[in-house]
Design a protein that fits this description.
Two copies of one chain form a homodimer.
Chain A (H helix, E strand, L loop, with lengths): L3 E11 L7 H7 L5 E5 L3 H4 L2 H12 L3 E4 L8 H14 L3 E6 L1 H14 L6 H5 L10 E5 L11 E6 L4 E6 L7 E4 L9 H19 L7 H23 L4 H13 L14 H13 L3 H16 L4 H12 L8 H18 L6 H4 L6 H8 L14 H12 L4
Helix pairs in contact in A: 1-3, 4-5, 7-8, 7-9, 7-11, 8-9, 8-12, 10-11, 10-15, 11-13, 11-16, 12-13, 15-16
Amino acid sequence: MDNFNFYSPTEFVFGRGRENEAGELVKKHGGSKVLVHFGGGSAVRSGLLDRVTASLDKAGVPYVSLGGVKPNPRDTLVYEGIELCRKENVDFILCVGGGSVIDSAKAIAAGVVYDGDFWDFYSGKAVIEKAVPVATVLTIAAAGSEGSGDTVVTQESTGLKRGAGSNALRPRFSIMNPELTCTLPAFQTACGAADIMAHVFERYFTNTQEVEITDRLCEAVLCTMVKEAPRVIADPNNYEARANIMWAGTVAHTNIVGVGRSQDWNSHNIEHELSGLYDVAHGAGLAVIMPSWMEFVMPHNPMRFAQMATRVFGCAMNFENPEATAMEGIRCFRRFLKELGLPINFAELGAKEEDIPVLVEKLGLGDGRTGGFVQLSSEDVAQIYRIAARATV
Amino acid sequence: MDNFNFYSPTEFVFGRGRENEAGELVKKHGGSKVLVHFGGGSAVRSGLLDRVTASLDKAGVPYVSLGGVKPNPRDTLVYEGIELCRKENVDFILCVGGGSVIDSAKAIAAGVVYDGDFWDFYSGKAVIEKAVPVATVLTIAAAGSEGSGDTVVTQESTGLKRGAGSNALRPRFSIMNPELTCTLPAFQTACGAADIMAHVFERYFTNTQEVEITDRLCEAVLCTMVKEAPRVIADPNNYEARANIMWAGTVAHTNIVGVGRSQDWNSHNIEHELSGLYDVAHGAGLAVIMPSWMEFVMPHNPMRFAQMATRVFGCAMNFENPEATAMEGIRCFRRFLKELGLPINFAELGAKEEDIPVLVEKLGLGDGRTGGFVQLSSEDVAQIYRIAARATV
């Protein structure tokens, strides 16, 4: 096991009706002037935003609002948010939404207390050392941003989608009411499930030996998703299944399932170019890329894929031919994604095979290689895109 | 899933050599005058205490020391620690040791800032709302106190062993170097393993339905222990196995494997009277009590025990007779404990069957019942002690 630090100081406030505690929680965590940050109409239409602001009013905490976050959140709104926070002396950002809203809020939080251009953090020019406190009211189980220090933002002028991270961005509290996710369209629900599973797989495929506890924790989240995701697609109002998925999504990304080991993250890197270029949902892009990446890298460690196949998808181990078990596990995963209603190839996603050179170019590896489970060259990435382009179940 | 709050703000600093960061970590977490609290000779003899105090010296953090914590930590030393902290204006307690040292430190931390008798917290007269910050350098994987807000102390004059808890007692940081546990005697190592598994089982046996994620996380820790505990008994210097067990011990008790569900804790309650009366190791007492408790309560929900048997111990499911699978799982657990070198009945523990009325009396249920998975009467508890007295594999 590699040395590690694990730090997840977020107070998770989970269950029915908990959004009504938002105001008191902001006060408890030291906020005195709040930016309420949100996305499109659903938080407004459902009355959620009203409940949250009523809770702030009741607690006597003043606030300003900034809506309009889009999926794959843009730098343009972040600049607007930073300006607003400075003008209004905001000292706490409460976001109401999913991963895009939270990631946008984190970018604002870091940018407000930084003298330069906030994009420096995303382009790798600067490291986030401090930020205005962020807290969340989560409306979709997917990104895990409610329990992580990570953020991904898209630069509108270039389409570049880049990430940054810092413990300073870990939310002070996250309110998680599974009921809020019951009205999500099936496709968004399925995209969230793919994202959650991808966060685990990025940590599961490691070159570190003998990290049984983290392996088993990864498998715990994956087995939960295999059981619960089809249940919410079949019955969107199943509270118990929604609750299991929502908490699984957080556990998947605080990094408790990833400590003590090397991680991969190439599927995310490769997918980011897809959702950057076509503006497709991140989870849908992952459904196309992840099994294709698995097929490509499986020969690097067939036994690890056989372990996934048997422990997560219940495949029988083929002791004479572990590769066959490994491949069966990958097929199970792709079938599972397809049955959730997700795309599994370029055509279903709305991507084009002839754009592969553009995607590879945007990833910017050049003659270099990525890190991770298998170090990939530009040609390797192109091959993964080609597998993804034509995948079937 | 029940509504819940989950809050585990401890910074875990894990791996080889990390104890040398103690001084800088104390400074980072705001300590300016430290009480170094420890137990008997092993931390001194091994040179660990010197490395920790050298790290404090290097960071320029002054400290006073208080050693002498015994297993099942006593109130008498807590009073001494409170007096010392007040006299020396201590604002941070750094403990070096295992669960007993940490629990003693937490009692001191709560007592220093309380006007009354600290025992009020343990007798249920008062609730802990604030405490001096505590941090740990862990030397044994067992109690999970390095990641919890819980503390258990024994009142020397009465032999009463009682617990208290508060988020204010959650350590600010915990340094966890698995190498430090390699010199532990096999028996103490095994006792720690039993304690870790018990912390999971207390949460696993629930009456809340459909909490798949927490079930799976529980099973992740249990499967890890089933694999790794025999390896460290066979090879005490196996770093990887030690590391897996050490982190499993923390995961078992931050409560991440217990959220959203009713819990039990009767095995702990019943065991506390054993270690209170005979001053035996807590983990040894649990090895005797826990499988006996399982036998007694199994008819309440045989399928839950069958789930444990198949998922944790790899038993084949007997679909015609789930109770048979359930009993086989309990037998597997008791055999597993025995093979680790732990006692499984009163004689092996050094307890006496004729003391059962005294044990039941001390538990103090009277005509009432405990809460938990199955609500137990005094007679139920007596029956569990009788099963435990004569258990065999």
